[in-house]
Write a structure and sequence with these properties.
By secondary structure, the chain is mostly helical. It has 12 helices and no strands. The protein folds into 2 domains: 57 residues; 227 residues, MetI-like (MetI-like fold, Orthogonal Bundle), CATH 1.10.3720.10.
Length: 295
């Protein structure tokens, strides 16, 4: 009889003190999580509002048609920095995408019992967490210091080293989501391993791989520290990748620290342009190419 009563009490949540204690802990945890989320969103909205208020006034036709102005002059734009950033980021994406995808395929196919693959994954994880300024100093030491001049190629190599680990890890993780039954069916039909890896496994998660490329692109679009040691800057319009080249992150950094109102206004406009470009890439990677489960 006593055992039956204890069971009934345990099944009555309202009368169970352990249940009530857990319920209050749950409510406190939810409240703290909601508070933390609200604080984060408040700061994010504050940053975006400040960028829009101070940067929207600098967005005009001159920004996209004129080069950066000289000290103390009026007017000017950011066309040389915009073109330079597009060149740097575009070339870095062209370099990092095939390297990252093929490395991710290798890790997914041979990374279980291969010591070299395990070491590659370990180095990739380290590079993901490495400060970007360290990568910039590394490229400066092995390239810029030897050729004795800054260049767009050095900046491209620096931000490529930042993008490659992102593509590698995303590709590796996405390929591991492919069901083994799909791979076994392809092997049963007589397909060689390289065809299964590229035409079956990679195709099944192509949306996730593209998402990783877009996330890497968004990551390197606003990097400033590596470019300070590699590409530096150029006040004039130049498409020569073997010479210092203008880019938005460094121009924003230099103009924001200047005493000229015109330069600071252009810095706010450039910051708004970079922020919303990165925001658009992140939204695109999470909506248009969203793929939770491979088909």
């Amino acid at each position: 009889m006593n055992d039956r009563v204890s069971v009934v009490e345990a099944l009555a949540p309202a009368a169970n003190p352990v249940y009530r204690q857990r319920l209050w802990r749950h409510r406190i945890g939810i409240a703290l999580s909601f508070f933390a989320m609200s604080v984060g969103l408040a700061f994010l909205l504050w940053i975006l509002a400040t960028l829009v208020i101070k940067g929207f006034g600098a967005i005009n036709a001159d920004m996209f048609t004129q080069t950066t102005p000289s000290p103390g002059s009026d007017g000017g734009g950011l066309i040389n920095a915009i073109v330079g950033s597009l060149m740097l980021v575009g070339l870095a994406t062209a370099i990092s995408t095939p390297i990252g995808i093929f490395a991710g395929i290798y890790l997914a196919e041979y990374g279980d019992k291969n010591w070299f693959a395990q070491m590659t994954r370990f180095v990739t994880d380290i590079m993901l967490s490495a400060p970007s300024i360290v990568i910039g100093l590394f490229v400066y030491a092995i390239y810029v210091a030897n050729v004795k001049h800054f260049s767009g190629w050095a900046g491209t190599f620096a931000i490529s080293l930042i993008a490659i680990p992102v593509v590698v890890r995303t590709t590796d993780n996405m390929l591991r989501l492919v069901p083994n039954s799909l791979l076994e069916a392809a092997f049963a039909l007589g397909a060689p391993r390289w065809k299964v890896a590229t035409f079956v496994r990679l195709r099944a998660v192509k949306a996730g791989v593209v998402t990783g490329v877009l996330l890497a692109l968004a990551r390197i679009s606003g990097e400033t520290a590596p470019l300070l040691f590699t590409a530096l800057n150029n006040q004039f319009f130049s498409a020569n990748m073997n010479a210092p080249i203008a880019n938005l992150p460094v121009v924003i950094y230099q103009f924001a620290m200047s005493p000229y109102d015109n330069w600071r206004s252009l810095a706010w406009g450039g910051a708004l342009l970079v922020t919303f470009s990165v925001l658009a890439l992140n939204i695109l990677s999470r909506t248009l190419f969203n793929q939770k489960n491979p088909n």
